[in-house]
Amino acid sequence: MLINNDETKKYDLVAVGRACIDLNAVDYNRPMEETMTFAKYVGGSPANVAIGLAKLGLKPAFIGKLADDQHGRFIKTYMTTAGVQMDESVVDSAGHKTGLAFTEIKSPSDCSILMYRDEVADLYLEATEVSESAIKASRLLLVSGTALAASPSREAILTAVNYAKKHGVPIVFELDYRPYTWRSAVDTAVYYRLVANEADIIIGTRDEFDRLENHDGGENEATITDLFKQRAQLIVIKHGVEGSYAYTKAGEVFDGKVYRTKVLKTFGAGDSYAAAFIYALLEGKTIDTALKYGSAAAAIVVSQHSSSDAMPTVAAIEALIASHQP
Ligand SMILES: Nc1ncnc2c1ncn2[C@@H]1O[C@H](COP(=O)(O)OP(=O)(O)O)[C@@H](O)[C@H]1O
Ligand SMILES: O=C(O)C[C@@H](O)[C@H](O)C(=O)COP(=O)(O)O
């Protein structure tokens, strides 16, 4: 069974990886050189997904290492208030800092991210700091590809994957490729492959699957043929504004259409899409419906200023689906 329906589980999902800070340009539609004001939000892909699930009414928990600084404390308070269980997260005691992502919004379709990720606390999560009991108590485990970029976080992720397998908890691998963190393309491909072979559900953009395969211009058919030889049951490949596809091991293909909207910025699409897609699966909806939820959530978030704070409610997603033909 892909999704565990055990209602006695304490958590719907445990996300492991980074919780950071996004500083989003307030003076947008201009290059960052001309941006003087930034607004602060919680960021980091797995944190964003956990916040998205909480906003959708589920019970997520987050395992990660937070800096012992003002940003780390802001993140913990924000996520707790949003409904993410943070008791399994740990605080860094060695002076490592919170990762920062400055976002540039040059136009609604031309955005970029300038990341400050040297010696960041999240990459210092130790394997011994990953709670086996929390993972055992969850319906799903979500691991982020960026957390595989360096040790000891790499071993922490592999430990989380091992606990999930030991306790029969399905694993979602969000490829979440952030180039700044990786040492080499070969490293990325090696560690992506290791976790992709153990994951039940894999979600990524076409470009991210190319990083897993360590070449450019890959084709979805070849990718899924290769990955379905391993454990994966469901693979989602996103193509930005062109939409997305979900493939099952049984050979089904589902086409995820895009909801056109007034776009403010491009980032935040992937994390909101993942949160709403996973929510729909956890609620027992069909893959077709899960794709609609993912696309609708992404359309809502790209029309707003933040990634985490803008995560939609179920009512907002369902209203968009009801009112639009994709
Ligand atoms: N400009 C947009 N307008 C509306 N929906 C979008 C837009 N860009 C992306 N999306 C939705 O978000 C999903 C994920 O976007 P994508 O850019 O592929 O992921 P990521 O943000 O991880 O790079 C797409 O499949 C699509 O449904
Ligand atoms: O993941 C990060 O560290 C940065 C995010 O917090 C930021 O909001 C973002 O880039 C999200 O982009 P997405 O992958 O398009 O959801």
From TrEMBL:
Gene3D superfamilies for the chain: 3.40.1190.20, putative 5-dehydro-2- deoxygluconokinase
Sequence ranges assigned to domain Carbohydrate kinase PfkB in this UniProt record: 12-313
Protein's organism: Brochothrix campestris FSL F6-1037
Reaction catalyzed: 5-dehydro-2-deoxy-D-gluconate + ATP = 6-phospho-5-dehydro-2-deoxy-D-gluconate + ADP + H(+)
EC number(s) on file: 2.7.1.92
Protein's gene: iolC
The organism's taxonomic lineage, starting at the top: Bacteria, Bacillati, Bacillota, Bacilli, Bacillales
PANTHER family recorded: 5-DEHYDRO-2-DEOXYGLUCONOKINASE, HEXOKINASE FAMILY MEMBER
Protein name: 5-dehydro-2-deoxygluconokinase
GO biological process annotation, one example: inositol catabolic process
Task of the protein: Catalyzes the phosphorylation of 5-dehydro-2-deoxy-D-gluconate (2-deoxy-5-keto-D-gluconate or DKG) to 6-phospho-5-dehydro-2-deoxy-D-gluconate (DKGP).
Keywords, comma-separated and alphabetical: ATP-binding, Kinase, Nucleotide-binding, Transferase
GO molecular function terms attached to this record: 5-dehydro-2-deoxygluconokinase activity; ATP binding
Pathway: Polyol metabolism; myo-inositol degradation into acetyl-CoA; acetyl-CoA from myo-inositol: step 5/7
Family: Belongs to the carbohydrate kinase PfkB family.
InterPro entries documented for this protein: Carboh/pur_kinase_PfkB_CS, DKG_kinase_firmi, Myo_inos_IolC, Myo_inos_IolC-like_sf, PfkB_Carbo_kinase, PfkB_dom, Ribokinase-like
Keyword Oxidoreductase: no
NCBIfam families: myo_inos_iolC_N (TIGR04382)
